[in-house]
Protein: Protein O-mannosyl-transferase 2
Organism: Ardeotis kori
Amino acid sequence: WDETHFGKMGSYYINRTFFFDVHPPLGKMLIGLAGYLSGYDGTFPFQKPGDRYEQHNYLGMRGGYNFSHDLLFLQFCAFLGSCLVPFAYLTVLELSKSLPAALLTAFILIFDTGCITLSQYILLDPILMFFLMGAVLSMVKCNSCADRPFSASWWFWLTLTGVNLAGAMGVKFVGLFVVLLVGLNTIYDLWDLLGNLSLSLVIFGKHLLARVLCLILLPLALYTAVFAVHFTVLNKSGPGDGFFSSAFQSQLIGNNLHNVSVPE
């Protein structure tokens, strides 16, 4: 049923048609990009659940394989859903140092019907779960580098945590829960460092600045950049025009107010 929404929004990006939705744009943008790269032309109407796709090349956005243009594209949502298995394996392995526990976790996800079902349709859920679990894995890996702060691996995992936080928030606002998790973990780390009398306040300040840079400023910059791309790509009049001001509508190609001078 949700394919009628998110598939249609992917088509809007391909056709550069402006629309409005309650969720942030990153997930729909990635669906549209996957469809574009796999040969989908954005012409399927997505009117009601169960409509046949017929000749429309929808597999790039969903699950399966596409052999068009002599290229093999692993389909987008199915690929991101399959990434959850190694993410879970690596996270549990890092936390428990137990290979049987990590393997058990991976097999539980491999044979989880809900995860398989969610990952084979044009939905935001596999994209959201990819960034959520990516953020948790990055956080855990960064914690494991605590004995060698400011090393290349420490910076890499800290930065990747920030990127995944931006991705989670950019798909759905539910991503704020993983922001809360990482935030609590960061507060605990900083409190522990503050209580370490062998560390100078200058070193503590560097730790604090690194986390502000990678876990606050970087995610906010990326989140804002997603909206900048969103408004740049969607430059044609569409069903979302009425939610915005006349001044904004005058910038949309095909709108009745296009290029009209609108007083502030």
